[in-house]
Each structure stands twice: as C-alpha cells, then as structure tokens.
Design brief:
Length: 137
C-alpha cells in the first residue's frame, strides 16, 4: 500500500466515523420542551410531606401555587414596581434635593399627599415625572 492510498483510507475512516457529540444527547431533568426548568428548592420537612401528598406530586403542586400567587398578586406587584421605578428616578435626579428622604418615606408608605408636599419645591419636570412614575400602577 502506498502512502497516498494509506492517507486516503484514513480520511475515509475519519469522515465516516460518527461524531461523539452527535451521538450523545444530554438528558436533562424536567420537561425542557415545555420550558420547564429544574432548580433546587429548600423546604422544611412538613412542607415536603404536604407536597408529596398532593395529586400530581410536588412539582405540579408548586407550579399551581406559584401560578395562583402570581395571578392574585398582580396589583401589589405592579404597585411595587411603580414604587421602585419612582424611587430610582428620585434617587438619580432628586437625591440631593430638599425633602428627598421624606418623599421616599411617603412613596413607600403609599401617601400620595405627603409625597406631593415633600417634592413641591423640586424642579417642575422632575416633580411631574416622579409623580407620574409613582402613580403608574
């Protein structure tokens, strides 16, 4: 056999050999096709006992609990997000303005009148935008 034939047969063998990465499929826990992600949860033993007793098992019970809480807390969550947006804006543009700390306390206490009072001396555009962010819920 010549060197040319030998190297040609090696190329054929290499191109015909299955690639290891193609043959191996990584098997992940959960249902990735549905978008389910497996993560660790730490609970007390009584919580695990309760979850184990639920129809469908712990995963189904947890998904139902999370979905129920997510749907029932939409108003509270949107209010909290509005407060956070207003807070970050107020910190960036009003952090050195008079009444900032009192305004921040009023913001998180949901006291719109006190908030208006404490930012009354702020520049008009800053005051207007802070109030808009605080009331967008």
């Amino acid at each position: 056999m010549t060197d040319a034939t030998n190297s040609s047969s090696h190329r054929t063998v290499l191109t015909q050999a299955p690639q290891e990465s193609e043959d191996r499929t990584v098997r992940r826990r959960g249902r990735p096709k549905l978008g389910v992600i497996s993560r660790e949860v730490t609970l007390l033993p009584r919580h695990w006992e309760w979850l184990a007793a639920q129809p469908g098992g712990a995963s189904v019970a947890l998904r139902k609990l999370v979905e129920s809480a997510r749907l029932s807390n939409t108003d509270r969550d949107s209010r909290r997000k509005a407060q956070e947006r207003a807070y970050h804006f107020m910190l960036a543009l009003g952090g050195d303005l008079p009444g900032y700390e009192e305004a921040t306390r009023a913001l998180f206490a949901d006291d719109a009148e006190a908030l208006k009072t404490h930012i009354a001396g702020w520049p008009n555009d800053v005051r207007t935008h802070a109030l808009k962010l605080a009331t967008d819920a």
